[in-house]
Amino acid sequence: MPTPTRGFLGRRRERDPRLPPGQYDVGGDWPVLTAEPTPRIAPETWSITVDGLVEQPTTWSWDEAHRLPPSEYRGDIHCVTTWSKLDTRFSGVSVDTLLEAARPTAEAHFVMATSRTGYTANLPLADVTGGKAWLVWDFDGRPLTPEHGGPVRLLVPHLYFWKSAKWVSRLTLLTRDQPGFWEQNGYHDRGDPWRQQRYQGD
Q: Which of 11, 83, 129, 161 is surrounded by the fewest CB atoms within 10 Å?
């Protein structure tokens, strides 16, 4: 029996080099995955506090946070459930700006992000400084919806997206790492998608 030629088989599709191992491009979709019911938080009632091992614990209201120097992230995000969303655009304020005001002490090496719902995510301080993390309130030029963490979520795009805590309200500086919500349930303490750090032991 004759076999199909290469022309009929078609050319193999090249994998987008922006996709970490095990990830696929979700395209125009943006799946909603949460560990808890979605809260409805009026922006005028939202605030962000930076405390713990800092010289100047500080809280910003919605209006005060919007008066800080704006910052934008353009790039890709990756969920531990294997979808990635490419070419995203978020607007808000750099975490560097908040930490510059609060001034972490020399003993601070980790951060615990806490959401209004009580959800927590732990991060090395090095992963939220140096232009690598933001508090964001706009996505693609529009207010972030509650389902995606609005009015304000943490954005740490170089790590799996569970680290980008929705409805974030507090960043606490710590000396030692402490597991957050998913980390207590077996997820990796850091969550680097390029190293497929999905679960403890990866």
A: 11
Nearest to 150 by CA among 140, 161, 139, 158: 139
pLDDT for residue 181 is more than 60: yes
Give Cα separations from 63 to 18, 33, 47 (angstroms). Answer: 36, 29, 9
> Alpha helices, DSSP H only, in the chain?
6-9, 62-66, 95-102, 181-184
**Tokens of residue 153, six digits:** 């979520």
Task: Find the range with the poorest average confidence among 25-39, 51-65, 111-125.
Answer: 25-39
Before 17, cis peptide (omega within 30)? Answer: no
Measured CA to CA, the distance from residue 92 to residue 128 in angstroms comes to 14
What's the rounded Cα separation, in Å, for the pair 181 and 119?
6
